[in-house]
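Researcher: Next entry in the queue.
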Amino acid sequence: MKQKRWLKHPWLTGMLAVSWLLLQHSLEPVHLLSAALIGLVLPRLLHDFLPREASLRLLPMLSLTRVVLWDILISNITVARLVLGPLSRMRPAWVPVPLALTNPTAISLLATIITTTPGTVSCTIDEQRREILVHALNCDDPAQMASDIKNRYETPLLAIFEHASPQTGKGDST
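Model: Structure for this entry, 174 residues:
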């Protein structure tokens, strides 16, 4: 008989507990206890609605986080210059980005990363065409922008979620 694991989503448990404590602005015992209960009970109650566990790779996650934070910083500066400068410098464009990702969580994260980076918004994910449509505030070369999105964000997401080699994009033998 297979034993059920109580902590099927340990990251979610931790994030819920920490979020609760941050909202309470207190480490009093009652708040610690309520954070622990919320962190343990909510993922258990929502288990059927949550995606199955995935084995994620930590180093590519850290690397992607560094890249995204850097890109957000640089994009903020770039967008500020564009907005404060002459509007004629802006060249908005729609950029289709073909997807190699198949994991729905990874695709959602890619869309979130694109939208979080100032100057770009992911507008739709076309599952039949296997592409995500991105609106860019300023884009001189849509093909280059699509390539940058794939190299900077999608390739690490493949390594994190689908255990693909960053160079080849093909799965590991492990």
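Model: Confidence is low (pLDDT under 50) at residues 165-174.
Researcher: Noted, moving on.
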